[in-house]
Amino acid sequence: MSIHLSEQEQIRRQALTELKKLGINPYPPEEYEVNATAKEILEQFPEDGNLFQEVSLAGRIMSRRIMGAASFAELKDHTGRMQLYFKRDDICPGEDKTMYNTVFKHLLDIGDFIGVKGYVFVTKMGEITIHVTEFKVLSKSLRPLPIVKEKDGKVYDAFTDPDQRFRQRYVDLIVNDHVKD
């Protein structure tokens, strides 16, 4: 019996193989230590920024914006979403830039779980963000998530089919934050 995989699932399985070739365990057995949540950072940083000089956070990648040697990503943990800022030379201070150029830019996908360490700052746009100095792959997602996009009040590619939402409750909880309440 052969299993039919979509093109996206095949690409993700190839990325899984590449991670293993680089010596990165895509499903590490140890627990990743976190010292903050997205909600704590967003609520407390404006009042006392000194609390978040060194934060450790884990969650699912929900979006990425890659711009050469620097990138932004959105991480979702059990409390909310947090913007991340990745700078190649901060993640890879030596000559080997593999962690950023290969792993982050090409082998990680939306839906993958990562753990990040860094410090909190506010961007020029006023967004509270973690400047990532170190990250670790915690779980490689082999199936793509439906991506919900909004523009001018309209929702595109929404995960709305009631039958599908009941059958794939785990996807509904990931994609639609309002169903948790």
Would you mind describing this structure in some detail?
This protein has 181 residues and is α+β, with helices and mostly antiparallel strands. It has two domains: 27-145, Nucleic acid-binding proteins (OB fold (Dihydrolipoamide Acetyltransferase, E2P), Beta Barrel), CATH 2.40.50.140; 146-181, no CATH class. The protein has six helices and seven strands, in the order H-H-E-E-E-H-H-E-E-E-E-H-H. The strands form two sheets. A five-stranded mixed barrel has the order 1-2-3-5-4. A two-stranded antiparallel ribbon has the order 6-7. Strand 1 (55-67) and strand 2 form a beta hairpin. It is globular and about 50 Å long. The model has no long low-confidence stretch (mean pLDDT 85).
Secondary-structure blueprint of this entry?
Layout: H1 7-21, H2 38-44, E1 55-67, E2 70-76, E3 81-87, H3 88-91, H4 98-107, E4 113-122, E5 128-139, E6 149-151, E7 154-156, H5 162-167, H6 169-175
Parallel strand pairs: 3-5
Antiparallel strand pairs: 1-2, 1-4, 2-3, 4-5, 6-7
CATH class of the largest domain: Mainly Beta
CATH superfamily of the largest domain: Nucleic acid-binding proteins
Report the uncertain regions.
none
Using only C-alpha atoms, the radius of gyration works out to 17 Å
What is the succession of H and E elements?
HHEEEHHEEEEHH
Q: Strand arrangement, largest sheet?
A: 1-2-3-5-4
CATH topology of the largest domain: OB fold (Dihydrolipoamide Acetyltransferase, E2P)
Taken as a percent bin, the fraction of beta residues is 25-35%
The protein's oligomeric status is single chain
Give the tally of β-strands. 7
Mean pLDDT: 85
Share of helix among residues?
Answer: 25-40%
Broad shape: globular
Termini distance? 41 Å
Structural class: alpha+beta
Q: What is the domain tally?
A: 2
Please report the number of helical segments. Answer: 6
Largest sheet: 5 strands, mixed, barrel
